[in-house]
Amino acid sequence: PLELEIGFGNGEYLARRAELHPERDFVGLEIAWNSHKRALRRLAEPPKKTNVRLLHLPAFPALKLFFEPNSLSNVKCLFPVPWPNERHAQKRLFSAKFLDLLANRLKSDATFTIVTDHEGLALWAMDRARESTMDLKLFESDDLKLDTKYERKWLSTGQKIFYHLTGRKIAHAELGREDFDQMRSTISYLINPSDYHPQGRGEEPTIVFGDLIYDYQKKQGLLSTKVVEDQFVQKFFIKISQQPDGSHKLAPAFTSQVYPTYGVALALELAALREPKTLGQIGPDPAKREIPWDEA
Hints:
By secondary structure, this protein is an alpha/beta fold. Helix content is 23%, strand content 31%. It has 7 helices and 13 strands. The strands form 2 sheets. Strands 3-2-1-4-5-7-6 form a 7-stranded mixed β-sheet, sandwiched between helices. A 6-stranded antiparallel β-sheet has the order 9-10-11-12-8-13, with helices on one face.
């Protein structure tokens, strides 16, 4: 069985669970690198916990890219950042869209748990769940016994009530096409490096192009690129290389860590000075000479 903890903090709860249940596998998600270092030290302490993997990514892209449908047996999120101000509401994790993605990844009998000290976040998550394929129930508790850093912190400041949300999926959300096996680097006959001004896009996925650094002797350059989709930001370089026939090949630079998302595929199309395609159109075009992603 595969369990997921979203936002594992210093890793103490994750390490305890892994030690208590060696028959299960665990994945922890966290965006703070210092938390990863602390968690790795805990996992390495005897007895070494070999049934845990950590991902240094936000929850939405991690779930979308690295987990299959119906793969998770248990998901917990303990004391997430509440983002209490309304102007920060878009940063809250438990949107209806996220809950649908989570429902798709959960097994039919899997459980999902949120624990928070913030009543506003609990009520907000309950409202979002009503618009999704997740069924959440809200309980108040004064005795969690999770023994986590933030539980101890809030107890020491006099916090009496904690909000415990638990639930299951009530339907399997179908998310449409999710594989990107068809994403390609591309060949463009339209690029003139001395007068090259690719246009990004403002709607999601948002794509912003920066400067092009081009070496006219080597006939290749790097285009600074930023792609934002589902609160996931990727910054990388698109390598543009002139081919013997005068065309240019475009692909993410080898040194860039790029996850092959729809937004990245669109960025390659726009950088090639083409009209952006829909998700269903991304892939080989028999009218154009294109190179498979794994060969690029």
